């Protein structure tokens, strides 16, 4: 190993770490607001990458049908809840608009060829599919049991992940796919040539983290989410809707996942079940942050990226083992430093 190899491995580590940092932040956001460990976070990444690859390859884009089915299920659930509450079936405007939106987007992606639409438009259409998918998943699977024990929420989250993996196999098939890079060329810094996609990943990740910071610090909705994360019961008492907080956190998680999938798709081949391992590494970063600290979780994810990159060079057969072993000393240290915890009512 020489300095040039170290620089190349460091570049790969920064690229992977930036993606893992985004996923760690989204997992942490959802957990602090809703107590849900979002196991399906990786499916947002995989579905976004494979959907964009389908657009570029001219193959059918089937994700809209999943979104339409979930939107229709949400409409039925809301109508049933209204019937149980008032004794009559009432169609709420929001779920009805969700079904109309999903139907329109499904028609667009099915009937209009997007192979020559350009990367920017393809990315926008992909995010337009994935972000409402996060909202629909929360409404159908999590909102009815929002007050359940965290263990129940975890079991449901695992079940949703398993179902989505199966649906992903039906929609995208077993073959992997890559997308075209955003741009060609790169930037030379000394002995190292920075790949253009690496620059895109780092730049978009930093911009997204800055945008999230401004959202949570300056906007009313961001402050409401922070309040729900600090004290859910207190936030509800002052008028912050837990339903709205849950939907907002899932929408942000889906947005981050879709951007992560779009960014990582030109770098590595993504399969229908690749999202689990990718999000699991983001989860390790979130655990390093104690499922509480956003900066520490981001730093932990960057550490995971560097460890993965250098272990690929030294012991590629044990790369995953080395990465996931890093969580053990963190868990041991936290178990020794925390002597007890209060149960939340």
Describe what you observe in this structure:
The protein has 345 residues and is an all-alpha fold. It has one domain (3-61, 114-333): Orthogonal Bundle (ABC transporter involved in vitamin B12 uptake, BtuC), CATH 1.10.3470. Helices cover 74% and strands 2% of the residues. It contains 14 helices and 2 strands, in the order ααααααββαααααααα. Strands 1-2 form a two-stranded antiparallel ribbon. A hairpin with a 2-residue loop joins strand 1 (186-189) and strand 2 (192-195). It starts with a helix and ends in an 8-residue tail after the last helix. 40% of the residues are buried.
Tally of separate domains: 1
**If helices are DSSP runs of H or I spanning 4 or more residues, what is the number of helices?**
14
Mean pLDDT: 84
What is the CATH fold-level name? ABC transporter involved in vitamin B12 uptake, BtuC
Oligomeric assembly? single chain
Class from secondary-structure proportions:
mainly alpha
Strand order, sheet with most strands: 1-2
**Helicity level, as a percent range?**
over 70%
Terminal Cα span: 55 Å
Major β-sheet profile: 2 strands, antiparallel
Question: What is this entry, summarized?
Answer:
With 345 residues, this protein is mainly α. The protein contains 14 helices and two strands.
Itemize the secondary structure elements and their pairings.
Layout: H1 3-34, H2 41-57, H3 63-86, H4 93-111, H5 119-142, H6 150-172, E1 186-189, E2 192-195, H7 196-218, H8 220-230, H9 232-237, H10 242-264, H11 275-288, H12 294-314, H13 319-325, H14 327-337
Antiparallel strand pairs: 1-2
Helix pairs in contact: 1-7, 1-8, 1-10, 1-11, 1-12, 2-5, 2-6, 2-10, 2-11, 3-4, 3-5, 4-5, 5-10, 7-8, 7-10, 11-12, 12-13
